[in-house]
From TrEMBL:
Its main location: membrane. It comes from the Eukaryota. It is found in: Cell membrane; Cytoplasm, Cytoskeleton; Endoplasmic reticulum membrane; Membrane. The gene is Arl6ip5. This is PRA1 family protein. GO terms for cellular component: cytoskeleton; endoplasmic reticulum membrane; plasma membrane. Keywords: Acetylation, Cell membrane, Cytoplasm, Cytoskeleton, Endoplasmic reticulum, Membrane, Transmembrane, Transmembrane helix. GO terms for biological process: negative regulation of transport.
Amino acid sequence: MEVQVAPLRAWDDFFPGSDRFARPDFKDISKWNNRVVSNLLYYQTNYLMVAATVVSIVGFLSPLNMLIGGTVVVLVFMGFVWVSHNKDILRKLKKQYPSTFVVAIMLSSYFLISYLGDVMVFMFGITLPLLLMFVHASLRLRNIKNKLENKMEGIGLKKTPMGIILDALEQQEESINKLADYITKVKE
């Protein structure tokens, strides 16, 4: 299936008034995770634009360190994904605690970058965009269009770059299982 770039959402949809934002339910991690995954899929092009702006600013100020930092993070991410696909213990850990997996990638990257050079480039150029995305995805309430788009991605009717990343982190399977359970209940 061909990878499609998600459309850029309107600014007033991406960042509307405070009525479309709410604190997530920290007691229900599954629901919070579902909100984050849904928003990451729906607003992925907006997040890419925000990240590109921050990376461009930091990259302009320190291009070599930004290149080194980005390379280290990508290599560490690919290494963790490869290891987690080949080791059952890590695969189970990644599925049960996806945020722990991401934190492990970021901490490993941080220590490698601190060994190689400029930590501030890592903090502002790589971690800040990820933090902004996570905070927005955690606080932004979903709407009907958001849920519909995510179902299409979840059942495989379309494939986007964020969907590929979430598949690597094994965050998409849960939505498919929920949809299959729902369809089974409807048939009964």
